[in-house]
Amino acid sequence: MRETLFVIPHEFLGLPMFGLLGWIVIVWLIIGTGWMIWYHKQQKHTGQNGEQALQSPLMFIIIVALLFGVVVPFVEPRHPISNEPVGMAIRGYGLFVLLGLVCGISLSAHLAKRLGLKIEPVFSLAVWLVISGMIGARAVYVIQYWHRFTANDPSFGELLGRIVNLTQGGLVVYGSLIGGSIGSWIFLRRNKLPVLDYFDIMMPAMMVGLACGRLGCLCFGCCFGGTCGIDDWHVQFPPGSPPYRAQIFRGEFPLLPEIVRHHTGAEATVIPMGPDGSEALLEVTDAADSGFATGDELLFTLARTEQGFIPADQWPMMFHFGLEDSVVAELKLRDGSRTIPLKLSDLPPTSLPVKPAQLLSAVSATAICILLLIYLPRRRRAGQLLALMLTVYPIARFLLENVRNDEKGQFGTDYTISQWISFLMIGLGIACWVWLQRKAPNRSSAKS
User: Fold this and answer.
1) Phi, psi of 262 (to 5 degrees)
2) Is the dihedral of CA 44, 45, 48, 53 positive or negative?
3) Which of 193-197, 288-292, 307-311, 372-376 is least confident?
4) Where are the domains of the chain?
5) Rounded Cα–Cα distance for residues 281 and 275 (Å)
6) Rounded (10°) angle between helices 417-437 and 384-401
7) Is-contact 344 230, C-beta < 8 A?
8) What is the Cα–Cα distance from 270 to 252, expressed in whole angstroms?
9) Helix, strand, or coil here: 145?
10) What 3-state class would DSSP assign to 281?
11) pTM (predicted TM-score)
């Protein structure tokens, strides 16, 4: 895991980096937007379709500049102790998502040329796909984890800020597929383009994007697998990462009792409190000479500094600043009568071994992309790649959910929400195959 690849300093030789670059990008956006408006009017004045103005690669470049040149620099990491801005963190998650975006669009443009489709709409389609896909991915995540967003009774402004904050991840693949498909369908119908043909070239590109996105998940630590043996193929994550926190609060971490034993001499066992907690509960089973009593309950919780709490999700950044000796957690009696501060260096250095779910997902998406590309010259009807993806991907995702360990069963079953959606998508894929088989073969669809 490497959540932050590197940090661009807040200042360089006394010059504010983001103030200068921010103004350059803003000016570029103003000029680019003005050029697009002028070009749009020129197209209408000459009697051509004004929508062609939106089918320029420049539109995509402007959107990317807006997202990564203006919005992202304002999401600056701050020093965990002083809370001072330290620059712009280049996150592994965001970098791989951007890489998947570029590779996916390039592949779509190549496939459009191969099938004899117009290449220009691919760039505008990408804008619609990305924006609607992100909205769908975030919406499904917010709905699935609504209790996390409403924790501690936030105000409306705080709730809205939590919903739109993507710096800590929080995108669901199925949500992006649903939202992206809806947005793409609207764009294609609006511009009277062959919907099924363009959907076919989108499917391999979406798998490329998914493969890169899963590598981003590996950098961040989300979408992790269940615990496994040290001799199995596994990965381990540092303190503060999602699997590290989940193992603590689920009571899976055997090193917490060792921390109690090391600092107090008492023996204790962990009482599971659920993966969404902010503290872990231990019960003293042998007090020895620790000053505790057998049966006492100890809380492992975040420690309060003069500036406030240091959330566990900021612990990886503390390693970046060399703050391993800072107090980040504490052991205390449940009644608060005794507290033992814990430094970051006192905690276990890694999580327990977990199955490499992110890597398996990336390999699976790559394999599906290759399968779609192999099938492309053999298709006889537009939409068959869409049907194939709707059939194969849900099966792969259903199986991968058995490797992952970050979601609970839903509707009183052991099946996660993603597995339930997989059932629906498989049914949709079968229905799509049946519908396509009733259509006459299209010669243009077989072109390669």
Assistant:
1) -65, -40
2) negative
3) 307-311
4) 92-226+355-446, 242-346
5) 12
6) 160
7) no
8) 8
9) coil
10) strand
11) 0.77
Three-class DSSP category at 405: coil
The CA distance from 400 to 326, in Å, is 38
Calculate helix-pair angle for 92-114, 195-220, nearest 10 degrees.
160
C-alpha distance from residue 213 to each of 90, 101, 110, 203 (Å):
15, 9, 21, 15
Contacts of 187 (CB under 8 A, 6+ apart): 124, 125, 128
Give the mean model confidence (pLDDT) for residues 361-370: 96
Alpha helices in 222-338 (DSSP H): 242-249, 255-264, 315-320
> 361: closest CA among 427, 296, 406?
406
At 282, give phi and psi (nearest 5°).
Answer: -125, 150
What HEC string does 345-361 produce? HHCCCCCCCECCHHHHH
**What is the rounded CA–CA span in Å between residue 446 and residue 448?**
6
Residue 249 burial by Cβ neighbours in a 10 Å radius (0-12, 13-18, 19+): buried
What pLDDT digit, counting tens, does each position of 143-176 carry?
A: 877 877 887 778 888 888 778 776 555 778 888 8
Residue type at 434? V
| Token digits of residue 77 | 């990491």
Distance CA(118)–CA(120), nearest Å, equals 6
Contact 215, 362 (CB under 8 A): yes
Determine the 3-state secondary structure of 233 from DSSP: coil
In sequence order, the β-bridge partners of residue 433 are none
Residue with tokens 């608060």: 336
Are the C-beta atoms of residues 107 and 202 closer than 8 Å to each other? no
Per-residue pLDDT tens for 33-44? 666 666 566 655
Can you spell out the DSSP letters for 90-111? EEHHHHHHHHHHHHHHHHHHHH
Tell me how far CA of residue 409 lies from CA of 144, 278, 399, 404, 414, in angstroms.
12, 21, 14, 12, 4
C-alpha to C-alpha distance for 76 and 71, rounded to whole angstroms: 10
The residue type found at 19 is G
Residue written as token pair 């505008």:
124
